[in-house]
């Protein structure tokens, strides 16, 4: 479902031809079903690991904060760790982390490859949480 068209400042803020954003029909169906039955969105069905990440210039997604009690905290991930893989898929940027998680559902268990701030490599298993609906 189309949701937004990009604006091009060089065209006076008009639509940028060929650039738009959309959400999947499955996501729309899920949200509409919840709205019809309860009047609000009660769950997102979107996977989350419970971290605040920043793309590291050297490659990977640097953990800058971990949600207390969240999936990453339960797995032993700490601020300063560098996420380099999720489920054996490379995550050289925060966008890559989001892309990998977008293909997964809450409750799934995945391996996460990390480099600690001391340079040690390790792997942990995370049971994916869910992005809170708002």
From TrEMBL:
Q: Which GO terms describe its molecular function?
A: peptidase activity
The keyword Hydrolase is assigned to this record: yes
Q: What are the alphabetically sorted keywords of the record? A: Hydrolase, Protease
Q: Which residues are in the PDZ domain?
A: 35-97
InterPro entries reported for this sequence: Chloro_Bact_Ser_Proteases (IPR051201), PDZ (IPR001478), PDZ_6 (IPR041489), PDZ_sf (IPR036034)
**Biological process GO terms, please?**
proteolysis
- Which Pfam families does the entry mention? PDZ_6
Q: What is this protein called?
A: S1C family serine protease
Q: Which organism is it from?
A: Solirubrobacter ginsenosidimutans
